[in-house]
Design brief:
The complex is a heterodimer of chains A (about 400) and B (about 220).
Chain A (H helix, E strand, L loop, with lengths): L2 H13 L2 H38 L4 E6 L13 H8 L7 E16 L2 E10 L3 H4 L4 E4 L4 H5 L4 E4 L1 H8 L9 E4 L2 E9 L13 E5 H8 L10 E6 L5 H16 L8 E5 H44 L1 H9 L4 H40 L10 H27 L3 H6 L2
Helix pairs in contact in A: 1-11, 2-9, 2-11, 2-12, 9-11, 9-12, 11-12
Chain B lengths: L3 E14 L2 E9 L2 E3 L3 E5 L6 H8 L7 E6 L2 E2 L5 H11 E4 L11 H11 L6 H11 L15 H13 L5 E5 L7 H18 L2 E5 L3 H4 L4 E6 L2 E3 L2
Parallel strand pairs in B: 4-9, 4-10, 7-8, 8-9
Antiparallel strand pairs in B: 1-2, 1-3, 1-5, 5-6, 10-11
Helix pairs in contact in B: 3-4, 3-5, 4-5, 5-6
Classes of the chains: A alpha+beta (about 400), B alpha/beta (about 220).
Chain lengths: ~400, ~220
């Protein structure tokens, strides 16, 4: 008996009991669809989070002050630190250095008020953070030197305060009561990732230091974002930053008063979280696949009992143990394979619908149904069919022909 | 190869039914010649069915020797027995035992499939069905055929691998007397024309009367006539 024949025969005998076979297949369909949908939605969420982290910029390193009990007399980061990092002789791996001062302020236009994050930035910030403008211009060196009262605002901020994100350049808004002229509007970055990137105000860091955000020392900055010249140079850049800051801050051994995080660190963390989330969802879905497998086993056991006389006859006509085993295994494999194929389609549909719903509600998740997911689901469902079919098939194959023929 | 197609020596069979041991066969030694028509008779409980199962290689004896067509069957394993059944024995059952999902032709093809025959099965199945007079019914399913016709399909199935023995267990038991006579005539005709040994297991004296010889069983032993 060759494989094609076994499959044809399995299909014939399954189609003799269409409702029963259909319901058994349905169990597998639901299981496979759940696995496919969950894995692809998880993958989509991961891509979305990863994409938004990558959207921040490329090859970034974030330097922050460490506030730890272990470090005695920690020194804050300053503009002078940022200038030292900008020295291409000491830090050849760094392409750009953007010091940032950040705080929360009240922004108001007429009677419209909102609490917004304000960041004091330098002109290089736009390049480092991949910021583009829908209108107007970014903060330039003249604004820096003149400590100009100018602001670049996010699209949501513009909408909140002015009612529109267009045609607001030249308008004036009050930040903590002081008038600032809007010189540009940022392009939307989407709401996922680190808080809302679209509701914020950027001002020259010099202006922020003198007029908006007051720290212990005047030159203090909260963070320094740096961009390395290439992805390969990131590790080297991290070394250079650490060396320069250690000597400037006179830190003891293993007592850095600053921390350096790379974009890769954030990516890795986000991927771990979404990965766990995906495995969790997939695991729950796999349970339903298992239940489907038990359904196959159940129905195959019923089938073996019903067809005891048929098995006896086949044995009398010369069927060997393996022939009967193959016959019943092909039936359960066909059940699960059909369920798997339909389940892949259904899972694809579910993840597509979820993707549509998610993007309609403003959280873009593009569920990714990968070839690996499909192969995994097919292999897994067929394996389930074979595994759960093995016991009934073996029971059929071990029947004694005499007793099987006599069975009523 | 001896002239005896079937030769048993002191066959015994003991079943365990819970605590009780049932001695279904108690030393049966028979010989059946090639081409012979033999009836095996006996009341129920005489060991008639057990002997049929032994001769048909459906079951193994507890002790004793059995040679089928020169081969020592009593030493074979399960799968080897299956091959022997496939090649050497054609079964005709009282209740036909056809697969209801399959057409007459597919039913007749079944033994060839287990013989590993890949090509020409359909053609051989058609020929066998013509031999039993059902050349025009090859695509009918069992439920579309009368009892007599179903038994003819079963006979075609038994013939198709060209076995040494036709083993008929109450072949007319489920048929009316007219179809029964036709089936008997067909079996005897096959025996005459092909020289196939025909073994009839029956309790009907009219059937047994058509055999050349009758083996009577009583309490698991052969009653010499």
């Amino acid at each position: 008996m060759n494989a094609v024949q076994a499959l044809i025969e399995a299909l014939e005998s399954l189609s003799a009991n269409k409702l029963r076979s259909g319901l058994t297949i349905l169990g597998i369909v639901i299981g496979v669809a759940a696995v496919i949908a969950m894995l692809s939605i998880g993958q989509g969420a991961q891509n979305s989070v990863t994409g938004s982290i990558e959207g921040i910029g490329t090859n970034l390193l974030f330097v922050m002050q460490t506030r730890s009990e272990d470090v005695r007399n920690p020194k804050p980061l300053t503009m002078a630190d940022a200038d030292a990092l900008s020295d291409s002789l000491n830090a050849p791996s760094l392409a750009a250095v953007a010091p940032i001062l950040q705080g929360n302020v009240d922004a108001a236009v007429g009677s419209e008020k909102s609490s917004v994050t304000v960041s004091g930035v330098t002109p290089v910030y736009a390049g480092v953070m991949n910021e583009t403008l829908t209108e107007g211009e970014f903060i330039n060196q003249d604004h820096m030197l003149g400590r100009a009262s100018v602001a670049v605002i996010g699209p949501d901020t513009a909408t909140n305060l002015f009612g529109s994100e267009f045609g607001v350049v030249g308008e004036t808004l009050r930040v903590n009561g002081q008038p600032f002229r809007v010189i540009g509007v940022l392009k939307s970055k989407g709401g996922s990732g680190f808080g809302n990137q679209d509701d914020r105000i950027l001002v020259p860091i010099t202006t922020a230091q003198t007029r908006l955000i007051h720290r212990e020392t005047r030159n203090q900055v909260d963070m320094i974002y740096t961009q390395s010249v290439s992805a390969e140079a990131t590790a080297q850049a991290q070394e250079e930053i650490a060396t320069i800051l250690r000597s400037r801050h006179n830190t003891g051994l293993n007592a850095d008063d600053f921390s350096i995080y790379s974009q890769q660190d954030f990516l890795a963390t986000a991927q771990t979280i979404t990965g766990v989330f995906t495995i969790f969802l997939g695991g729950i879905a796999a349970i339903s696949l298992l239940v489907g497998g038990i359904g196959i086993m159940n129905i195959m056991l019923v089938s073996v009992t019903e067809r005891t006389r048929e098995i006896g006859l086949r044995k009398a006509l010369g069927a060997r143990k393996e022939d009967i085993l193959v016959q019943f295994l092909s039936e359960s494999a066909v059940l699960s394979l059909l369920g798997g194929v339909v389940g892949i389609g259904l899972g694809w549909l579910i993840s597509f619908v979820v993707g549509q719903v998610a993007s309609a509600s403003g959280t873009p998740i593009n569920p990714a149904v990968g070839l690996d997911t499909i192969l995994l689901a097919t292999a897994f469902s067929t394996a389930i069919g074979l595994f759960f079919g093995l016991y009934p098939a073996n029971r059929a194959a071990s029947l004694q022909p005499v007793e099987a023929l006599r069975y009523e | 190869m001896s002239d005896w197609v079937i030769e048993t020596q002191d066959l015994t069979k003991v079943y365990k039914m819970g605590e009780v041991e049932v001695h279904a066969l108690q030393g049966v030694s028979i010989k059946i010649a090639r081409g012979e028509v033999v009836a095996i008779m006996g009341p129920s409980g005489s060991g008639k069915s057990t002997l049929m199962n032994m001769i048909g290689c459906l079951d193994q004896p507890s002790s004793g020797e059995y040679f089928l067509d020169g081969e020592r069957v009593s030493a074979l394993k399960e799968n080897q027995l299956a091959t022997v059944r496939n090649h050497k024995i054609g079964f005709v059952f009282q209740s036909f035992h056809l697969l209801s999902r399959h057409t007459a032709q597919a039913n007749v093809e079944l033994p060839m499939r287990y013989a590993g025959l890949m090509r020409g099965r359909a053609e051989k199945a058609r020929q066998a069905l013509e031999v039993v007079g059902l050349g025009d019914r090859i695509h009918h399913r069992p439920q579309e055929l009368s009892g007599g016709q179903q038994q003819r399909v079963a006979i075609a199935r038994a013939l198709v691998n060209d076995p040494a023995i036709l083993m008929a267990d109450e072949p007319t038991g489920n048929l009316d007397s007219k179809s029964g006579k036709e089936i008997m005539a067909l079996l005897l005709k096959i025996n005459r024309e092909r020289g196939m040994t025909l073994i009839l297991v029956t309790h009907d004296p009219l059937i047994a009367a058509q055999a050349q010889r009758t083996i009577r069983l009583q309490d698991g032993k052969v009653e010499e006539a």
